[in-house]
Design a protein that fits this description.
The structure holds 2 protein chains of 2 kinds. By secondary structure, chain A is an alpha/beta fold. Chain A has helices spanning 9-20, 32-39, 44-50, 55-62, 78-87, 94-109, 125-141, 150-159, 175-184, 201-206, 212-221, 240-248, 264-273, 289-298, 317-322, 346-350, 366-374, 391-395, 417-424, 440-449, 466-476, 521-527, 534-542, and strands at residues 116-119, 165-169, 189-193, 208-209, 228-230, 234-235, 254-256, 279-281, 304-307, 331-334, 356-358, 381-383, 405-408, 430-434, 455-459, 481-485, 491-494. The longest helix of chain A is centred in the first third of the chain and has 17 residues, at 125-141. Chain A is flat and about 85 Å long. Chain B has a single domain (5-156), classed as Potassium Channel Kv1.1, Chain A, CATH 3.30.710.10. Chain B contains 9 helices and 3 strands. Chain B has helices at 20-23, 27-35, 51-63, 70-83, 93-98, 103-116, 119-133, 138-145, 153-163, and strands at residues 5-9, 15-19, 44-45. Mean pLDDT of chain B is 77; it is low at 70-85 and 162-170. The chains are: A alpha/beta, B mainly alpha. Chain A: Pfam families: F-box-like (PF12937). Chain A: Residues 511-524 have a biased composition (Basic and acidic residues). Chain A: Residues 492-503 have a biased composition (Low complexity).
């Protein structure tokens, strides 16, 4: 694995300067390794400035010298540090690549570019990860949302020739940038979403306006390479853009178009041209039963379907899906408010590989859950919030042997459920409690009896008594991560005593995006926090999915 | 019984006496002493260190002779570095005055500290040079270190094109 020296202005400059580089007189006699040691006291910005002093310094900073063996990254993400450490083991031109990534990092940290994340997916996998993390760190640490510098993006896109995946989150993508990406003709993944960390609910729902013409240009240029397209919270001026785009692109495997203008016709065109689809997320869209029928009749390889909250779907939607060809579905989330409860157990029979099921807001009752449980489902994740379950039904969860993630929020359950859950779900690692009025004492005793729980999440209008819970957590489960969402959807995060306070970056820690590895984003989404558990490895194996390298960190 | 003072010969043929305690602060001299146990005590040749620079090194050793043993100090430092960025702050006032010298002298002391393997002095000199580079523009660095700007306008334009201008770009 060797870097291609014909690529990149970077390397060309380095080669050119080596010819004329001469050590400055003042430094004569100073061995390079001593100067490398000096440079370990310099931060990234100072190193970059140093490289602009003379040819010798340029070559010195950019060569795979010991300069980069000690890197001051305290002001950057700890995730990047981890990645650097991990990559340290791989020698192939590593230092040079790190230099590039970090200089990009320092350069961009001063720009206001917050929301671009470039993944230089290429034949240099280590470079890819470094770059990915470096730029992710940039986007994470800059504050401003909407001040993306087009010139910065264009420079980066044109310079980093191997980039095949583009993530634009919470910012607008200009026509020039889109066309620059299109002209590379190698984009495999394009994500454009209006979702940013600081977005308000209103702007989030409004969606991101799109330049249809440029996007079609992009589709045409990248039709042979584009496999993943994510258009979350986006809107085109007319649905025809999507029709045309989906008829041009025929290699698509994953499409995510939640809260978008995607409709039945777009879905029909999409699945007709891309029957190989494996992932489809179309929640909160205009897709109705007709769209689901098109999916069910074409997509044999579908493993993930998210069609939640599509108002056009009816009680027939489940039947449509169970009678279709999508027998490989592993993750299913559809809107089931009017599906008769006796039909729900069919889900398990129809989709034998199912590992994650969302039954929220369905008519699920205790008897139905018992019937589902009797079929010994492989499920590792189950959402039964806003259903008709009672304490009795919760007891039947014991038959869900693999369950490690559970979401509940049930009117009919009482504090007694907090004693049943630990007994019924001994493997549980993630518990989400939606709008539930368990008493503080009940929650405390539940935490006490679930020492292996990793994440406890509250979605509640009321305040969660964190202070008193913290004491319980500190005593019985110091590794538990406590999360709460208040009614305005703003997340507050109260980590364990270990993680909060001691690490100032803990709140800003960029979680490695599941999309880094398209092979297993479904499982990774839920199991990121559980990556060290042998049990999870089994879950991966059962799902036929290789554990993510990111998760193994 | 070993003599309390050691003779060394510098690159300019000067013979200088230094105490055994100071000599042992140099790992290089210490190794030489261990190798020559029992042999006639001749002056140890230090062909890479001038008398002027050696006197400076002895000054530093005199001031720091009661510091913790070098090995311990390095261990502590390394442990710290695993968690924190390298800090180039020079806290000792005497050290601050010590490094207040011409660049050529600083470089010579650094080379001597490296050759003699006096870790504390070596780190001090590295920190000082790093401090001289920190927060400066390329022009200021060139001026401070007397470096000729051999980058062409083309090179600079290419750098700007590749990365954009840096904060300190002049």
């Amino acid at each position: 694995m060797k870097a291609n020296h014909t690529e990149g202005m970077w390397v060309k400059m380095l080669e050119g300067m080596k010819v004329k580089a001469d050590i400055p007189i003042a430094m004569k006699g100073l061995p390079e390794e001593i100067f490398a040691h000096v440079s370990t006291y310099l931060n990234l910005v100072d190193r970059v400035v140093l490289s602009q002093v003379s040819c010798w310094f340029y070559c010195f900073i950019h060569s795979p010298s010991p300069v980069w063996r000690t890197i001051d990254l305290t002001e950057y993400s700890s995730a990047l540090k981890k990645r650097i450490k991990q990559t340290h083991r791989h020698p192939d031109r590593y230092w040079e690549l790190v230099s590039q990534a970090l200089i990009s990092l320092s350069r961009c940290a001063r720009s206001s570019a917050r929301s671009i994340r470039l993944n230089a997916k290429s034949k240099y996998p280590y470079h890819t990860h470094i770059m990915d993390y470096a730029i992710y760190a940039i986007t994470y640490h800059c504050v401003h949302l909407d001040e993306l510098e087009e010139s910065t993006l264009l420079h980066m896109i044109q310079r980093l020739k191997n980039i095949k995946r583009y993530y634009f989150k919470g910012t607008s993508i200009t026509s020039n940038v889109l066309r620059a990406i299109a002209d590379q003709q190698q984009c495999e993944l394009m994500e454009v979403s209006a979702q940013g960390k600081n977005e308000t609910r209103n702007s989030w729902m409004k969606g991101l306006p799109f330049d249809s013409e440029s996007f079609l240009y992009f589709g045409e240029k990248c039709k042979e390479t584009l496999k993943v397209l994510r258009l979350k919270q986006t809107s085109f001026h007319s649905p025809e853009t999507l029709y045309t785009l989906f008829s041009i692109c025929r290699k698509l495997e994953r499409v995510s178009a939640g809260i978008s203008a995607i409709d039945d016709k777009a879905i029909k065109i999409l699945v007709e041209n891309n029957p190989q689809m494996t992932h489809l997320k179309i929640s909160l869209s205009k897709v109705s039963d007709r769209g689901l029928k098109a999916i069910a009749s074409r997509c044999e390889n579908l493993v993930h379907l998210d069609a939640k909250f599509n108002e056009g779907t009816t009680a027939q939607s489940l039947t449509i899906l169970t009678r279709g060809v999508c027998k490989k579905i592993q993750i299913l989330s559809i809107y089931l408010p009017s599906v008769p409860p006796e039909e729900l157990p069919n889900i398990i029979e129809s989709f034998p590989d199912l590992i994650k099921l969302d039954l929220a807001q369905s008519l699920l009752d205790d008897d139905t859950l018992k019937e589902i449980a009797a079929r010994k489902p492989k499920l590792y994740s189950l959402n039964v919030s806003e259903t008709n379950l009672s304490n009795d039904g919760i007891g039947s969860l014991i038959n869900f042997e693999n369950l490690i993630e559970l979401s509940i929020g049930l009117e009919k359950v009482s504090d007694a459920a907090t004693r049943i859950i630990p007994r019924s779900c001994p493997k549980l690692r993630i518990l989400r409690i939606h709008q539930q009025s368990f008493s503080e004492g009940a929650i405390s005793s539940m935490i006490e009896s679930m020492p292996y729980l990793k994440e406890l999440e509250f979605v509640s209008e009321g305040e969660i008594p964190f202070k008193s819970l913290q004491e319980t957590i500190r005593k019985y489960n110091p590794n538990l991560h406590l999360i709460s969402y208040d009614q305005d959807n703003e997340q507050s995060d109260s980590g364990s005593s270990e993680s909060s306070g001691s690490d100032i970056e803990s709140d800003d820690e960029p979680i490695p995006d599941r999309d880094l590895n398209p092979e297993n984003d479904l499982v990774h989404e839920t199991l990121l926090v559980l990556h060290n558990e042998a049990q999870v490895q089994e879950q991966f194996e059962q799902a036929g999915i290789e554990p993510d390298t990111m998760a193994q960190e | 019984m070993a003599s309390e003072s050691i003779s060394v010969t510098t690159s300019d043929d000067q013979t200088i006496q230094l105490s055994r305690k100071h000599a042992q602060m140099s790992q290089t001299i210490n190794s030489m002493l261990e190798d020559s146990v029992g042999a006639d005590q001749e002056a140890i040749p230090l062909p890479n260190v001038s008398s002027e620079v050696l006197k400076k090194v002895i000054d530093w050793c005199t001031h720091h002779e009661n510091d913790p043993a070098p090995v311990e100090k390095v261990k502590k430092l390394n442990k710290k570095r695993e968690y924190k960025a390298k800090n180039s702050t020079i806290s000792d006032e005497w050290d601050k005055n010590f490094v207040n010298a011409e660049l050529r002298v600083i470089v010579d002391i650094l080379l001597a500290a490296n050759y003699l393997d006096v870790k504390g002095l070596f780190e001090l000199m590295c920190k000082h040079i790093a401090n001289e580079l920190k927060g400066k523009t390329p022009d200021q660095i060139r001026e401070r270190f007397g470096i000729q700007d051999d980058l062409t306008e083309e090179d600079k334009a290419a750098m700007r094109k590749a990365w954009g201008a840096t904060k300190n770009d002049s």
